[in-house]
Structure to design on (378 residues):
């Protein structure tokens, strides 16, 4: 029993599996599934997506230097997988997945109506790392589905949205709440 | 019903909540909880961690330009939360959490014995973004707990390790498998 050593690999899990939307007009709006994404700074709020330059969406992002990150749910698992396997060069991904575009607030790229949260972004810097370019971006605004906002408290419950996680080739639902931030140091009453 | 617009925020979820270990000798080995982490390139395998420079672990990472990312599980939820709230300046985090350090293979920083997978990293570049520095690193090797390796097939099952996800202030277990990569285009037989 113990640890065995393997060659380098990409094993930071669980990862999100977001749908990145891009394009400047309804005719060229596209989506792309991205698991290599995350927050890189709290203040200012910044995130990254790492994308292979040969992907159909890559020049669409670069044309406007804008994109939108749409969080994905259990109900979107099939569409998310499909959009990651197929190319917008060959298919109208909106038609094929049944997902619904809606205009952005501060960017030309659309949000996905079925997503509980869309994060509108402007590209700040692109780093060529190898297979992937890391696209670093400022978060311009968040667009939250009001279905998950408690009208009495204003609290936004992403848990109720049924977010999905990606782990080493598998899409998983989220299970039980194990604790909230700081629970390990809270006094018992 | 629809989307409401909010000011920028850090909402790329679910995120991992990894334990980053650092330091060069058993006396200064420390750990730090990081949710702002992810894969940034597949080939070469690279990841990032974003850390506030004022954290106790920051100079420990910079001293050797090495660190280890340890994936976390449901069983590690309390320790992971605790290591994120408390500082190694004030506590011996190993003693307080009960987690067990073991020597690294290619780095001076330790792995956590209780973690199913340790990712040994060498710092490549540091970007000062604001509240957080983004530390980009090459993955040197993976160290996998053989408890999760099927002896007959050699397959590594992170699912069996009970990985934990972090969503907007909450730690969650993973739930059911919704599908595997490519399931949306597989022919039904």
């Amino acid at each position: 029993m113990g640890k065995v050593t393997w060659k380098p690999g990409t094993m930071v899990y669980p990862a999100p599996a977001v749908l990145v939307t891009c394009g400047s007009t309804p005719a060229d709006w596209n989506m792309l599934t991205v698991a290599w994404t995350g927050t890189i700074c709290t203040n200012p709020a910044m995130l990254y997506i790492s994308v292979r330059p040969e992907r159909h969406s890559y020049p669409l992002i670069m044309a406007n230097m804008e994109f939108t990150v749409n969080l994905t749910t259990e109900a979107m698992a099939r569409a998310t997988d499909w959009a990651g396997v197929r190319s917008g060069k060959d298919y109208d991904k909106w038609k094929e997945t049944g997902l619904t575009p809606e205009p952005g607030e501060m960017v030309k790229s659309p949000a996905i109506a079925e997503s509980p949260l869309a994060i509108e972004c402007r590209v700040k810097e692109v780093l060529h790392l190898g297979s992937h370019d890391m696209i670093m971006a400022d978060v311009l605004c968040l667009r939250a589905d009001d279905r998950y906002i408690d009208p009495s408290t204003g609290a936004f419950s992403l848990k109720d949205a049924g977010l999905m996680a990606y782990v080493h080739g598998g899409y998983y639902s989220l299970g039980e709440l194990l604790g909230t931030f700081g629970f390990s140091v809270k006094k018992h009453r």
Chain B has a mean pLDDT of 95. The first helix of chain B runs from residue 57 to 64.
